[in-house]
Design brief:
With about 375 residues, this protein is an alpha/beta fold. It has helices at about 15-25, 60-75, 100-110, 120-125, 150-160, 235-240, 280-290, 335-355; strands spanning about 5-10, 30-35, 50, 90-95, 115-120, 135-140, 145, 165-170, 175, 180-185, 190-195, 210-220, 230-235, 245-255, 260-270, 300-310, 315-320, 325-330. The strands form three sheets. Strands 1, 2, 8, 9, 10, 11, 17 and 18 form an eight-stranded mixed beta sheet that branches. Helix 1 (about 15-25) packs parallel to helix 5.
Amino acid sequence: MPRVQYDAAVVGAGIIGCSIARELAHRGRSVVVLEAGEVAGDTSCRAMGHVGVYDDTPAQLALTRFSRDLWDELGPELPAEVDFVRWGALWIAATEEEMSAVERKAELYASVGVPAEFVDRRRLAEMEPNLRPGLPGALWVPGDIVIDAAEASRFLARDAVASGAEIRTHARVRSLGADALTLDGGESVRAERFVVATGWRAPELVPALPVRPRKGHIVLTTPRPGYVRHQLSEVGYVQGSNPREAESIVFSCQPRSSGRYLLGATRQYVGSSTEVDPKVVERLVARAKQFLPDFDRLPVERTWSGLRPAGPEGTPILGPLPGRPEVVVAVAHEGIGITTSIATGRLISEILDGRPPSIPLEEFRPERFGIRAN
C-alpha cells in the first residue's frame, strides 16, 4: 500500500484527539486520527462530563473559562444524545471555615468576568432541598454545563470526518519517526506533524512525558427526577484533585436529563487497573451522605472506574516537544479534560498553523515541565 502524506496525524481518538482533528479539518488541513481501540473507548467513556470553570491555578482558570465559552458556541450544533444541559454548578461549603474559600472563589470569578453569585444557607436549602440542613452556603455558577462525554467525543469525530478527516480505529501506533509513524503491523503513515493525544498512555510513545494514570470511581443511580437540580461539588473539590496527593475522595454529584445521577469523585494512583474497588465505592457513598443524607436510598444502577491522565501540576501540557518540533503533545488533562477538550483543539490547531494562540500558552508548554525529547 502506498504511503500517504498528511498535514497532521493525531494519535488518540478520545475527546481531546477528536477535538483536535475537528479543528484541523475545519481549517482545511489533511488529518488522520489513529486510535488503538475505538473512538472514546477509554477515559472519555468513563468521565462524568462537567463542563465548568476551574481555578486551581491562573493557567487552569484561563483555559477552562476559554473552553466553556467555546462549548457555549458549540451547544446549538450538538445532537440530543450529547445531553448538553446548562444545570449550573453549586460549589458548597461543608463548614463555616470553608466559607472563606467560597468567598475567595467568588472574588476570583468576578475579577475575570465569570458570572457567579454567593448563596447563603437559606437560599441553598431552597435550591437543593435534599442537601443536609444547615450547610452554610455555596457559590452559584449558572453558566456551567453537563454533557455526555462519550457522545460528545463521537459527535466531534463525526464532524471531523464530515470535514475531511480520516479516523482509523484498531490502529495502534508503535513509534514516532521524523516524518512517519509506524503502526503495530509495520505500516508507516507519513505526516508533516504528529499530535500525541493518548491520555495516560502518552509515555508509551514519548517516555519523557510526566504523565501517569490516576484512577477514579463513579456511581450511577437509577432515576429519581428532581432529587438534585444542579451540578453539586464541595468547594474542596479542586484541592482534592491535587496531583501531589496520593488519594482523595471528594463529593461531586451530577444530574442527567434521564433523572439519573453520577456520583464522584475519587482519585488514586494504583497503576492501570480499572477494576472497581467496592471499598472505595462505599467511601464515596459515605462522603456523599455528608451532603445528601439519604443518598443511599437511591438504588445504584452501575459502578465503574476509569483512568485520568495526571500531570505534575494539574494543568495540561500543550505544545511542540523540545528537540522534536514535528511532535506536538496534548496531554495531562486529568479531571478537566472534558471541559478543556474544545479549547485544546483550538490551541493545537493554532500551534500547527503558526497563528497567535487564543490564550497565553507559556504555562502549558512542555519545556516549562523540563521535558526534552529522548
